[in-house]
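User:
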Amino acid sequence: MVKKAAVSEYSAKNITVLEGLEPVRKRPGMYIGSTGQTGLHHLIWEVVDNSFDEAMAGHATKITIHVQDDNWIAVEDDGRGIPVDIHPEQKISALELVLTKLHAGGKFGGDASGYKVSGGLHGVGVSVVNALSDHLQAEVHREGKIWVQEYKKGIPQGKVKSTGTTRQRGTTIRFHADASIFETTEYNLTEIIHHLRQQAYLTAGIHVVIIDERQGAKVPHGFYFEGGVASYVRHLNERHESRQPNVFYVHKAVDNLAVEVALQYTTEYNESMHCYANNIVNAEGGTHLAGFRAALTRVLNSYARDKGYLKDKDINLTGEDTREGLTAVISVKLPEPQFEGQTKGKLGNPEAKSAVETVFGEAFQIFLEEHPRDAEEIIGKCLLSARARAAARAARETVLRKGVLEGLTLPGKLADCSSKDNKNTELYIVEGDSAGGSAKQARNREYQAILPLRGKILNVERARLDKLLGNNEIKNLVIAMGTNIGEAFTLEDMRYGRVIIMTDADVDGAHIRTLLLTLFYRHFPQLITNGHIYIALPPLYRVQVGKDVRYAFSDEERAKIVAEMTAGKAENKKSKTETVDVPTATNQTSADDYSEATVIDAGGVKVNIQRYKGLGEMNPDQLWETTMDPATRIMKKVTIDDAVIADETFDILMGAEVAPRKKFIQTHAKDVANLDI
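Assistant: Predicted structure:
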């Protein structure tokens, strides 16, 4: 519960300056990651983080975000308000200092009047937003007065001035992203709602309101969670069947380090761990996660042995056994977090490990004793996981022998490449023998390998490892990649630098692609986070006028290409269309493999349009030129911007529940292009 704290001395002397603002507009990616959609929304997060810092310090209870016409954003809070008095060293208003200098803020002095806990650790947030906005307005309600200042591209348009009196307090930052810097300035309301809902869960008792005011709409989206991360766990598990009736929750501070943990077991086979330090997502975990895992395994083994579930002294539950089907949120708040890397993806503070291990371990032990039904369900789930793990180990040892992984017995259908340098090699996963035949002829044998799949692989969303390895296509893929799987996975043994999914541009191809992405996300997440998984984009059409040949990847692009290729050549506007069947690939053997070609006579200009319904319809040289040649191909790199959204999406698309999947399809059906029925 967030309560307003007594207003301590917080003035210009608490603002510390480290360096200037000039580099931001020259290299925006260094500060916000990118100039695309992700970087654009990062501007909002930077401003909102300051408001959440006020809430975590006990000085704010409400944050409102307005998405306004012409892509303006306004963020207001009821905190103390940014100081406006003159800084003793810099001789300018503290408000102007915060908005025009990097590393200027109340987060570096280390005294009690600034921030003990802060998400915006580096203090670059608002100043970077100011630098990357063509217009920014700051309004501060403080000490009974309203103070305002305006900026253009980070440059003050005048001094801070008082415009009236007020009984309120707080800060409002209104900004407009610079269109000359960002690829787009159009905000995604869904992304804003998701991110701020997550932040509201992590700061119990704070009111967060989002109002989309574009095109006259003023429908508010509000969040307020008394339960903190316990409410977050319930939200994450709302589509899963629970094995544990009561959500475990603990919130306790140890030596200025606050620990908040919630968990619940489900019938799923995958673990869902979410780590935060000062409300910052730690996608790679860190010391707080290490402390949680150590305590979880130790407490469950101790309880299981004490209650007679484990009788053999030589047998213990492993960490993997205790985490199957577990959804957990670990949140710590500490004065000086140490992160590894620019993205703050991993927490490095050693004191966080001991604090989480102590606080969580003691509370979880008490929870198991006081909730015997929950404890029985949890231990039963862990024992079932242990038996499945033993079966999976036996299957892995049978299927993936050491000699196999060293390349002595690679899958028979794999057309391997000659190079062994995994920095340059590529593995194409293709759909069926027909596409495999074209791909094998089209490839560069030195660094491109081809693995055809027969039919659709197993849906691994609700399958344990032993069942996975019983699927021949998955087994061949694991052997070909060389990484092994499960607890024996090693990224260092990966045989290819890129794994490229290349399927037909139809419904079946999309389904196979989704099945493969589910496999990689659930069992090889390191391949995605380390940038090894790609999706090939084969063209949909081949357009030819005379000897001029061009390829189109969508219906819109095809129409544009036809217009460009016939411009000025047509004798009149009358046209006629003739459809003929023609063979297009040298390796085709049946009538089913013939593609349909359409000849358009546009005023004397004949346009041949060939629709590719499958990769096997392409000649090898066409497949190489359009889809496999590094100089001309188009590929999508698979990334995970938000693990929670990714997890929810895979669960909707590939899980057992039909209703959420039907709703998802109905919601997004209009967004699908090039749908073949």
